[in-house]
Amino acid sequence: MDPVAALLEIAELLERERASRYRAKAFRKAAAVFENLSEDVRTDPVRLRAAEGIGESTFAVIREAQSGSDPKYLVELRGDVEAQISSLLRPKLRGDLHAHTEWSDGTTAIAVMAEAARAQGHEYQAITDHSPRLRVARGLSAERLREQIPLVRAESRDGLRMLAGIEVDILDDGALDQEDELLAELDIVVASVHSQLRMESRAMTARMIAAVSNPRVNVLGHCTGRLVQGERGTRPPSSFDAAAVFAACAEHGVAVEINSRPERQDPPGDLIAIALDAGCLFSIDSDAHAPGQLSLLDHGAQRAEGAGVPASRIVTTWGLERLLAWAE
């Protein structure tokens, strides 16, 4: 097996399992280092192990791959993924409207995310880095977002359309955390609450309704903000009038995101049922912060299927032309 391919596949599988980002980065770094080594160093175990960026674990993977066998660590990680239940809905998904890069709190470059989206067979992939208020996530100022837009679109090729977007913060009064004229230039706008998650229910309801009533918004991201597992611990859902918020989403053609991250499982099943009854559209998104996390769409598809969401009401099952017409 090609050592570079083995190292990169391990990195992607670690990212999918939300392992420490430093572990995944170590395997990506080792792949880049090995690729640039001269052949005589690659084939000399002593010099290879001494190369900066090649650690004990990555060295073992390289040597096993060079011997002609699949590295044991890779086989183990593959088995963990194969054991997960698949969904009949997953093959119908044609893209993803929520993903992050190193421009905010993601781990890799735009080009790397684009290549991973191609590997997933996506017809389209939105890059939606955070907006300015979320400083902890290096949210993009207007100037940085303007700089990013052409770089995202420049990665469109080989059957993949890269969509310039943003995950824009919903401010306390329901306004959006970015210039309106700039939001108008984007292909996709995901609006999410990231602050004051314990706001009183009536105020939170008004805040969210104001946001989804804004004509720039396409998707309401992880609507409750809850965390149910994972290294960040747990967090209760925000309190709001779900029927009123989802009625506003339906009225304005805003898709309710089914967030695919296992630590979120957002919205909860009972809220998905309310959104269905309200006539909402849905968007199954990865909320990926690393290339390997694009495959988390499996989880979102399973939840949507289990909740009885018809594929026709999931915008990410639509082709590019129909999706862009809706987003307009």
Structure description:
This protein has about 325 residues and is α/β, with parallel strands linked by helices. The chain has helices at about 5-15, 20-35, 40, 45-50, 55-65, 70-80, 110-120, 140-155, 180-185, 200-210, 240-250, 270-280, 295-305, 320-325; strands spanning about 95, 125, 160-170, 190, 220, 255-260, 280-285. The chain has a seven-stranded parallel β-sheet with strand order 1-2-3-4-5-6-7.
Key traits:
328 residues, alpha/beta, DNA polymerase, domain 1, 2 domains
Helix and strand layout, with pairings?
Layout: H1 3-16, H2 21-35, H3 39-42, H4 45-50, H5 56-66, H6 72-82, E1 95-96, H7 110-119, E2 124-127, H8 142-153, E3 161-169, H9 180-183, E4 188-192, H10 201-212, E5 219-220, H11 242-252, E6 255-259, H12 269-278, E7 282-285, H13 297-306, H14 320-327
Parallel strand pairs: 1-2, 2-3, 3-4, 4-5, 5-6, 6-7
**Which structural category fits the helices and strands?**
alpha/beta
Instruction: Please bin the fraction of helical residues.
Output: 40-55%
Count of spatially separate domains: 2
Q: Which outline best applies?
A: elongated
Q: Summary?
A:
The chain is 42% helix and 9% strand.
